[in-house]
């Protein structure tokens, strides 16, 4: 893991960009260390420095967590394949036309999950070797990656999952094996994430402690207080 | 309004019992006044001094709210009618037998709502005349009473509603007229409150800001952190 830039924010948070092999990422560390770690996953073409993600990460770091975000394969600073771009264009077209999208969705999300999860695990190995990071680890972000991580990675102690309407068949099955505490976030009117599928997925999780938060509005309309609620969720399980 | 007992708790909270005509109630006031007011409704035979309700009320008062609870007609210290008791026994029997319960439920909840809402309004008149109470008012409790109050009582600025699976037809219709911010609490495995009906009710509310919180477990299994979440919800709207 190579740090490539470093910035001390007015809040005292240290914000550093890094690369780990071909994976680019950002690490925020709080004033007091060692700190528990939150991994922030993102999806749908968002860059690891997308403003809303950065605001969430800085807020969490101010609450005492180390926070890491990496660009998923084909996202942010990483080269995207022509095949993926075509699949995403097909998905948008099919959604607008009201056609079934499951097969298109599977065609690019299944390989994304298969590649992203080992990358998160490698990133976790590197991060946990740093002296400023200690204690349990949480994941916050895209549902499909979070489910697989929760199943295969015992170092993940709690997860906040977002937008579970479209999730590959494999992860819908794996949901029953998830045992860690979950906070499952749903935008009630998210046209890109069918509500009933998200509710069915929440029902399927094997976790004894799972909480659903649903708010009115579309995909990008999650209210800021859910960031604060997420912080308290992790506070109950990581601190 | 007559205060009939007074106790200063170690936390500094003043806890007073009162009667207003035939309505018995309890008022908790915080150290700093005047304070915004939360009305705590309850149902199903629970007494205004039920330990969980008292713990919630004291917690809210410690966060700076005045909190009032009254015994609904036929509940707590108030005489219950033989007709109501028969209806509740019929309801339990029908639920255990898996029979339809809507008609039995309507037979005693419709008159309860019709009588309880004007009582809450009279209580509100009396409470808002006290110098230690000021500012906006929230309601937290039984869904059916909360819906009617939200529709007819403009002094209610926000509501936390619990257990919306069985709600009279009249309040299911009135839900569309509700415009205030809502926190709607659902126990995912509450056998006495059908989940799909509760989700349909959440969908029906006319409020622009409405949030659903669902947790695993039965009717009485709501985790304590929901009390804290409720406090933050009211903090956004009453303070």
UniProtKB/TrEMBL annotation, chains A, B:
- Classification via SUPFAM superfamilies: alpha/beta-Hydrolases (SSF53474)
Q: What is this protein called?
A: Alpha/beta hydrolase
Q: Could you tell me which InterPro entries the record lists for this protein?
A: AB_hydrolase_fold
């Amino acid at each position: 893991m190579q740090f490539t830039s470093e910035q001390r924010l007015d809040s005292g948070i240290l914000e550093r960009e890094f690369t780990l092999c071909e994976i680019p990422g950002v690490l925020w560390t709080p004033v007091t260390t060692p700190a528990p770690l939150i991994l922030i996953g993102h999806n749908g073409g968002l860059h690891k420095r997308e403003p809303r993600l950065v605001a969430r990460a800085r807020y969490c770091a101010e609450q005492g967590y180390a926070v890491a975000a990496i660009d998923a394969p084909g996202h942010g600073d990483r080269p995207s394949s022509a095949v993926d771009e075509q699949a995403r264009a097909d998905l948008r077209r099919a959604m607008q036309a009201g056609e079934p999208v499951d097969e298109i969705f599977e065609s690019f999300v299944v390989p994304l999950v298969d590649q992203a999860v080992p990358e998160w695990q490698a990133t976790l190995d590197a991060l946990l070797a740093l002296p400023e990071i200690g204690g349990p680890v949480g994941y916050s972000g895209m549902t499909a990656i979070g489910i697989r991580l929760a199943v295969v990675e015992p170092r993940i102690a709690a997860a906040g999952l977002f937008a579970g309407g479209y999730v590959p068949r494999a992860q819908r099955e794996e949901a029953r094996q998830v045992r860690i505490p979950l906070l499952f976030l749903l935008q009630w009117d998210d046209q890109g994430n069918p509500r009933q599928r998200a509710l069915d997925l929440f029902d399927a999780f094997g976790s004894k402690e799972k909480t659903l938060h649903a708010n009115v509005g579309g995909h990008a309309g999650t209210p800021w207080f859910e960031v604060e609620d997420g912080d308290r969720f992790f506070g109950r399980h990581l601190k």
